[in-house]
Design a protein that fits this description.
Helices cover 27% and strands 24% of the residues. The chain has a single domain, classed as B-lactam Antibiotic, Isopenicillin N Synthase, Chain (Jelly Rolls, Sandwich), CATH 2.60.120. The strands form three sheets. The chain has a seven-stranded antiparallel beta sheet. The protein contains nine helices and 13 strands. The chain has 286 residues and is an alpha+beta fold. The longest helix is centred in the N-terminal third of the chain and has 15 residues, at 25-39. It has helices at residues 25-39, 50-56, 61-65, 67-78, 87-90, 115-118, 122-129, 224-236, 239-248, and strands spanning 14-16, 22-24, 48-49, 102-109, 112-113, 134-142, 147-151, 158-166, 174-178, 181-184, 191-194, 199-203, 209-217. The radius of gyration is 18 Å and the shape is globular.
């Protein structure tokens, strides 16, 4: 798919409420980021990893209980890896990695189940549904030598959870930096952070990293909760979200429990062309 965003829903610079009514993207994102900067002191103390994350968000233990079942779902999904779209193929302006080095398999988006995808990973969706307040969930598949450029999410008041499922054999060479804090993923050890803090990712190995990403709303105080609630309901009903779900629905056949197979052939040689100058990152990496 061409890197240039097509006209219409997903077009860079516009957020579509309906097919024909849109709002300028940049002012909306800037407002959300300013709000995030104002309410960060009200957010849980983030980022957190490992046992610290589990103590702060014990409900996420539901994923650890289902770890083997989720891995089995993932193995089946990766047997169809060529069908899994890159992020920018689902939402064109989210071009953080050129090419297809970062693929995403959406299960939920802003409260909507992606039904065509959910049947492929039923045990994963069941575990996710035991966690209250989840509005978005996806498998994030990052190929070897890929790099996700520094960026900030724009949804203030949202907590992001990474549950690592596949990590390189040298995990310290595949890392994420979040606001100057450096982490690398270990299988089954969660990471929780505020997506509006600048973060970037680098996989310095030839192996693939897969994490299950879950977004849920933090409990915001009045009157911020009025804004986050209004935003949630507007976004989930927008043409933008409906189009993303349409593009993300790839129709992987429902998983046959008896015939589930291990997916060992995932392409790991794709390379991002994003260049980050050597001095561009802080000494403390996130």
């Amino acid at each position: 798919m061409a890197n240039e965003s097509p006209r219409g829903v997903g077009q860079k610079g516009r957020f579509y409420l309906t097919k024909n009514i849109w709002l300028p993207q940049e002012p909306l994102e800037n407002f959300n980021l300013r709000l995030s900067d104002m309410i960060v002191r009200r957010m849980p103390k983030l980022p957190l990893s490992g046992e610290d994350a589990m103590r702060a968000f014990p409900i996420l233990g539901e994923l650890k209980k289902s770890h083997d079942k989720i891995k089995a779902d993932l193995s089946y999904l990766l047997s169809h890896h060529e069908e899994i779209p890159a992020l920018h193929e689902v939402h064109p302006r989210d071009l953080y990695v050129p090419g297809r080095a970062w693929r995403t398999f959406l299960l939920k988006l802003w409260g909507h189940d992606v039904k065509e995808n959910a049947a492929a990973v039923p045990d994963t969706l069941e575990a996710i549904n035991r966690i209250p307040g989840v509005h978005t969930a996806l498998f994030s598949i990052l190929h070897g030598f890929a790099e996700i450029e520094p960026h900030r999410g724009s949804a203030a008041g949202v907590v992001r959870f990474h549950y690592p499922l596949i990590v390189p054999t040298e995990p310290e060479k595949c890392w994420i930096e979040i606001g100057g804090h450096h982490f690398f993923w270990k299988e089954g050890e969660p990471l929780v952070f505020d997506d509006t803090r600048e973060h970037w990712v680098k996989n310095q190995t030839d192996q693939t990293r897969v994490v299950l990403i879950i977004d849920f709303n933090a409990n915001m105080p009045f009157p911020v909760n009025l804004y986050t609630g209004l935003r949630y309901n507007l976004v989930r009903r927008s043409a933008e979200v409906k189009k993303v779900i349409e593009r993300a629905s790839i129709g992987v056949p429902p998983r046959n429990q008896a015939a589930a197979q291990t997916g060992g052939g995932l392409i790991s040689g794709a390379r991002s062309t994003t260049a980050v100058p050597a001095g561009a990152r802080s000494d403390e990496r996130h």
